[in-house]
Amino acid sequence: MREKKTKKGTSLFRKTNDWLHLWLGLASGIIVFIVSITGCIYTFQREIKDALEPWRFVEVEAQGFVPPSRLLDTAAKYMPGKKASGLTYSDATGAAAIGFVGKENGKRTFSAVFLNPYTGEYLRTQQVLGEGTFDFFRFVIDGHRALWLPYEIGRPIVGVATLIFVVLLITGLVMWWPKRWNKSNRDKSFKIKWSGRFKRVNYDLHNVLGFYSLLLALALAITGLVYSFTWFDKAVYFVASGGDIKEGHHHPHSDLANKDLEWTAATSPLDSAWYATLAQVDRVGGMYMTPYLKDEDDSYEILIYHNADSYYDQSAFFYDRYTLEPLEMDGSKFSEAKFADRLEMMNYDIHIGAIGGLPGKLLAFFISLICASLPITGFLVWWNKRK
Question: Pick from 204, 157, 172: which is nearest to 34 by CA?
């Protein structure tokens, strides 16, 4: 069946597609630019911070790390009256850090106390959030996630703009597709004519770079949408799992029947859980735990990152808070998880390119840069056609 043609010989489908690409692009262009350029900058935030903050590293020592209780005792001296919200060990060369969440004048604050993991020695306190503080990469990520608006307002706007960007990539592919695959059209579709006039070069930058970045730009957009919309996150899980419903955040619970048991071991329950976890793993690139439990049925959770430069290859270990009996949860270890759970663990690393190491980050950087350029070159294409 032939496509319905308009009077000018262009199909109704193509005219509708081009109209959507133009006006959706104009409507979302500024947001897409901000999200893309901030994502581009944030790609190497870890490497930049490592270079600018040498005090976050320590000399490797022959003895192992000190247990969590030693670090907590030291940090408490520098944050009197405050309770630690999280404890992080890095790899063999990184400092340990203990986080403290609080409020000042109704606003959330966050400080981290850095310690030598081999000796428990205090290194430095860094306040990330609070009055009079400015963290460049916090500023960048706030722009990326919420356009520097309150998150409850900015995140949905970013999410809708990202959905529109996915539509723009698809409609852009339709516009890019040559009517005839002769040499002249192939050159226009796959090559930038650098010797051409400004209008031609600008058009090629939009058309050709948009095509080459299409699949990876889609990957960045889709992994970003997972964070923007709960329904999208659940839909991805449903498709990836072949029809399973994604549960909310959950973890095994401690047995309240044992809550009156007296703890008699020489080491604290948290230290004992830490030692038990280290005995089960042979590769630690990082470690996170919540040192103080809130609810009576909470369990100790110790999260191991097996690689220092990525998060997806992780294993979560759970222990009953009263007996330290190991508890199990499906999908808690990457090596044993189903595909849908693995994909969920990989989402962040795919989004920033860390899934491919340094080459992957470089690729994500340039794809984000191209995505930031598309609203500009697209606007200029439209503006030049109006003259």
Answer: 157
What number is the average pLDDT over the span 293-316?
95
363 residue type, one letter? L
Asked whether residue 150 is domain-assigned, the answer is no
Q: What is the pLDDT of residue 107?
A: 80
Within-domain flag for 224? no
- Sheet bearing 326-327, strands edge to edge: 122-129, 107-115, 96-104, 86-89, 286-289, 299-305, 314-320, 326-327
Task: State pLDDT tens for residues 249-261.
Answer: 778 999 999 999 9
pLDDT at residue 71 greater than cutoff 80: yes
Supply the range of the domain harboring residue 74: 57-144
User: Does residue 83 lie within any of the structural domains?
Assistant: yes
CA 3 → CA 19, 173, 214, 324, distances in Å? 17, 18, 26, 68
Alpha-carbon gap, residue 290 to 300, rounded angstroms: 7
What is the rounded distance in angstroms from the CA atom of residue 269 to the CA atom of residue 108? 30
Say which residue the tokens 């000796």 belong to.
119
- Say yes or no to pLDDT of 381 above 80: yes
CATH of the domain at 137: 3.10.450
Q: Is 322 helix (H, G, I), strand (E, B) or coil?
A: coil
Give the count of domains, the chain: 1
Q: Is residue 67 part of a domain?
A: yes
Q: Which helix (H) or strand (E) holds 157?
A: helix 151-176
Q: Structure pTM?
A: 0.89
**pLDDT digit string, tens, across residues 269-292:** 999 999 999 999 988 999 999 999
Please tell me the distance from the alpha carbon of residue 101 to that of residue 182, in angstroms, as a whole number.
Answer: 62
